[in-house]
Amino acid sequence: MINITFTGPTGQISQTGWNKRENGAVTLKFYVNNSLGFETSAENIVIKDVVKQPSPEILGYDVYILLEVVGVIAFILIRKRNKS
User: Fold this and answer.
1) Rounded to an integer, what distance in angstroms lies between the CA atom of residue 27 and that of residue 47?
2) Among 25, 24, 42, which residue's Cα sits nearest to residue 33?
3) Which of 14, 39, 40, 59 has the fewest CB atoms within 10 Å, measured from its CB?
4) Which residues pair with 19 in a beta bridge?
5) 25, 49 contact by CB (below 8 A)
6) Residue 31: strand, helix, or coil
7) Per DSSP, what are the bridge partners of residue 25?
8) Please, which residues have CB within 8 angstroms of residue 64's CB and are 6 or more apart in sequence?
9) Rounded CA gap, 48 and 21, in Å?
10) HSE, side-chain direction, 13 A CA sphere, residue 50
11) What is the three-class DSSP state of 16?
């Protein structure tokens, strides 16, 4: 269980705390009190379902690396052609 406390009229969930949580149910419990000392709480359950997208691959090769190699070869050929 991770307990994160913040004060003030608004707050944010810590990105670091959120990243530490595994996928699944996450319970967010909010407590408030007024100037007379009355306190109440509310509980929300959200489902964290984050899927990391793999980089696109063609026949086991990373597309970005493949594009870089093709770009470098094209640059060299165009430059060589223009010098002739």
Assistant:
1) 9
2) 42
3) 59
4) none
5) no
6) strand
7) 47
8) 55
9) 8
10) 10
11) helix
Instruction: Kindly report the three-state secondary structure assignment for every residue of 49-77.
Output: CCCCCCCCEECCEEHHHHHHHHHHHHHHH
Distance separating alpha carbons of residues 30 and 82, to the nearest angstrom:
68
The answer to whether 84 and 77 are in contact (CB under 8 A) is: no
Q: How far apart are CA 30 and CA 14, in angstroms?
A: 15
Q: Are 49 and 57 in contact (CB under 8 A)?
A: no
pTM here? 0.45
Which pLDDT band, with edges at 50, 70 and 90, does 6 fall under? low
pLDDT in tens, 16-67: 877 888 898 888 888 888 888 888 888 888 898 888 777 666 666 677 788 8
Contacts for 27-35: CB closer than 8 Å, 24+ residues apart: none
Distance separating alpha carbons of residues 14 and 2, to the nearest angstrom: 11
